[in-house]
TrEMBL record, chain A:
Family: Belongs to the prokaryotic/mitochondrial release factor family.
Molecular function GO terms recorded: translation release factor activity
Protein name: Prokaryotic-type class I peptide chain release factors domain-containing protein
SUPFAM superfamilies for the chain: Release factor
Alphabetized PANTHER family for the sequence: CLASS I PEPTIDE CHAIN RELEASE FACTOR, LD18447P
Disordered: annotated span: 51-81, 100-119
Cellular-component GO terms for this entry: chloroplast
InterPro entries, A to Z: Pep_chain_release_fac_I, Pep_chain_release_fac_I_sf, Prokaryotic/Mito_RF
Source taxon at top rank: Eukaryota
Domain Prokaryotic-type class I peptide chain release factors: start-end pairs: 95-152
Automatic annotation (TrEMBL), chain B:
InterPro entries xrefs: DNA_methylase_N6_adenine_CS, HemK-like, Methyltranfer_dom, RF_glutamine_MTase_cyano, SAM-dependent_MTases_sf
Domain Methyltransferase: 218-348
PANTHER family given in the database record: PTHR47441, RELEASE FACTOR GLUTAMINE METHYLTRANSFERASE
Bilayer-spanning residue ranges: none
Biased composition range(s): Pro residues: 76-90
Protein name: Methyltransferase domain-containing protein
The keyword Ribonucleoprotein belongs to this UniProt entry's keyword annotation: no
GO terms (BP aspect): methylation
Native organism: Setaria viridis
Length: 255, 388
């Protein structure tokens, strides 16, 4: 993956002239998301919009261009883009990368590792960043992985319940006792696995389609309501997203 | 400080100076406009160029193996004069020493408290450095073991930390490495710490058609970061000549080449700029250099981490900072093969513009597609071009 990122960077030199709100002076915000901590994310009530028009005003209040409809990468003839199915390189290609830069002459003049990386996913306006590692290389990889999680949490794709079959990414995160989960699906994938995000996205898509009802979603997935609740509660960011979704439908939060 | 947006669109427009048409050798050449900007036009250019390939400046400023407290006229005063040798005089970088010093958890916790207490409120980033220092000093195996195994006695670590906080000794010299691209480059006093801006040089090299099987030279290789990073991308025929005049740099570069197993791809040569490359004249696919480019007059105002601790040899570019860059430009055409590529890092906008103008007018018969390339902070940091 790291290699793919470098290839990506290699093709982008020299950088674009400053073009967006990213260049405005702004203090370094704290990392957006940690799986193990209560999620500081806030969600916009735009669950019904297609992927290309999800905006994240909470992350970039000054960024008017973040969620424009029909941006070049987003809309594909009314279809819904599977961002999480893209390779790191493809996803990176849809991002503007911001680095935390110091003013001044730079180069040999300066000893300061400004290794923070901030990625803005152009089609969705979602912003992910990483600051904690010494290496910008590592921070870039962390930011990209966070971006995948954020896309899973924020980008809703409509489902037609009439002829719905849960995608394999979703089956993979279900507990083994699910009655619709075939033997060939393999072991259950947990929140620390990078393949959890696509499953989480599909689960939230389903939950959105059934108006936030965990029992309805559980029936479709061949699980008891309790088992699906436990799955949702097993990951902080998933729980927060599910509860935001339920709140928007006037339902009580899962605990 | 601000976020700089770096576009990732491969089709992003280049902001380089437009390509200048070829001129014949006898075409009268006017001084480029940038010369006037740098107020050099009153003097023939030759006066800026060293007559000898190895100017006496090199010898005058040759650094001692460890950061010297013997101040030259250029050295800003060091705040604390420490008569005792530093406790970490071991030339092996901390992160590569064996973890043989047990430290009980309680002692480690007490060290952490004392070290954190030294951090001034004005420098909160030092708390992160403390975390990184402990991570570099501890054996990787089990961080929670009691006693922890450290790569230096706790007392030494404490002295090293104090020198970082009080004397502004660069953190990279304390732990002995810098994270650069996907490499962990060993560094120590006497060798320039590779800068994040310079990472882009490797990408430019990789964009050169057929680069992988060419011979490259990294002039003034320092820690060898560029040479190792380029070597790792090369094919079976490819090779890098890593040249440096500093013996410390040669040692450190050798260590880094070994650490990444690039002995077959990187040939280290001791000497000044083109001097050790006589036998490969006209055979190089590319020349890469991040030479000293800071104008001598600017040296006293450098950030203390740089001005007090990094080697002047690697920073001092002489008057206007152009001394070595001009020498490099002059030697290019004789070492590069036709079609060969060069990339130099510079002090930024003015220097790059000056060099682009100079090369594409004075030496237009030898080079084409000469342009200034932006760094991530949108400063014209690099000059690139091709030999005809």
């Amino acid at each position: 993956m790291a290699r793919a990122l470098l290839l990506r960077i290699a093709r982008c030199y020299p950088p674009l002239p400053t073009s967006s709100a990213l260049s405005q002076p702004r203090p370094l915000p704290p990392p957006l998301l940690r799986r193990q901590a209560p999620s500081p994310l806030r969600f916009v009530p735009a669950f019904s919009l297609p992927a290309s028009s999800v905006s994240t005003s909470s992350d970039a209040p000054s960024d008017g261009g973040g969620g424009r409809k029909g941006e070049e990468d987003g809309a594909e003839g009314g279809g819904y883009v599977d961002y999480l199915g893209m390779s790191d390189e493809e996803l990176m290609g849809q991002c503007e990368m911001g680095t935390f830069k110091a003013s001044g002459p730079g180069g040999q003049h300066r000893n300061k590792r400004e290794s923070a990386v901030r990625l803005k996913h152009r089609p969705t306006g979602i912003i992910a960043q990483a600051v904690e590692d010494r290496s910008q290389h590592m921070n870039r990889a962390s930011a990209l992985s966070r971006l995948r999680t954020l896309i899973a949490l924020k980008v809703r794709r409509p489902i037609n319940l009439e002829d719905y079959t849960p995608p394999v990414e979703l089956l993979q995160i279900l507990p083994l006792k699910s009655t619709i989960r075939g033997k060939d699906v393999g072991p259950q994938i947990g929140p620390n696995n990078s393949k959890f995000s696509p499953g989480m996205q599909a689960l939230l898509d389903l939950l959105f389609a059934v108006e936030g009802s965990v029992s309805d979603a559980a029936k479709i997935l061949g699980l008891s309501t309790g088992a699906l609740s436990r799955l949702i509660l097993s990951d902080d960011s998933l729980r927060t997203a599910a509860n935001e979704l339920r709140a928007s439908k006037g339902l009580k939060p899962l605990r | 400080m601000a976020w700089s947006s770096v576009g990732l669109d491969p089709a992003s427009p280049s902001t380089s100076v437009p390509f200048l048409p070829r001129r014949t050798r006898h075409f009268p050449v006017k001084p480029p406009p940038a010369m006037a900007m740098l107020s050099l036009s009153s003097r023939p250019l030759a006066s800026l160029r060293p007559n000898r390939p190895n100017p006496p400046l090199h010898r005058l400023l040759r650094p001692k193996p460890l950061a010297s407290t013997s101040a030259s006229a250029l050295t800003p005063p060091t705040p604390l004069s420490d008569p005792t040798p530093p406790p970490d005089a071991d030339p092996t970088p901390l992160f590569l020493r064996p973890a043989t010093h047990p430290a009980p958890a309680a002692a480690l916790a007490a060290f952490r408290r004392r070290a954190a207490a030294l951090v001034p409120p004005s420098a909160p980033h030092l708390h992160r450095h403390l975390r990184w220092l402990l991570a570099a000093a501890a054996a990787a195996a089990d961080p929670s073991s009691d006693p922890a195994l450290l790569r230096a006695p706790l007392g030494d670590l404490e002295a090293m930390w104090a020198r970082h906080v009080r004397d502004r000794r660069p953190f990279q010299y304390v732990v002995g490495n810098e994270h650069w691209r996907d490499l962990v480059v060993a560094v120590r006093d006497g060798v320039l710490i590779p800068r994040p801006e310079t990472e882009a040089v490797v990408d430019m090299v990789r964009n050169v058609e057929g680069f992988a099987d060419g011979w490259w030279a990294d002039l003034g290789t320092g820690s060898g970061a560029i040479a190792v990073a380029v070597a790792r991308e090369l094919g079976p025929e490819g090779k890098v000549f890593a040249v440096d005049v500093s013996e410390v740099a040669i040692e450190v570069a050798r260590l880094n080449v070994q650490r990444y197993g690039m002995q077959d791809k990187v040939e280290i040569r001791h000497g000044s700029w083109f001097e050790p490359l006589e036998d490969v004249k006209g055979k190089l696919m590319g020349v890469i250099s991040n030479p000293p480019y800071i104008p001598t007059d600017d040296l006293p105002r450098l950030q203390p981490e740089v001005g007090w601790h990094e080697p002047k040899l690697a920073l001092d570019g002489g008057k206007d900072g152009l001394e070595h860059l001009l020498h490099l430009c002059e030697g290019l055409s004789s070492v590069l093969k036709p079609g060969g590529f060069f990339v130099f890092e510079t002090n930024g906008n003015k220097q790059s513009e000056f060099l682009v103008d100079l090369i594409s007018t004075k030496w237009s018969s030898s080079f084409h597609n000469v342009e200034a390339v932006l760094d991530f902070a949108e400063i014209k940091r690099f000059v690139t071009g091709y030999r005809r």
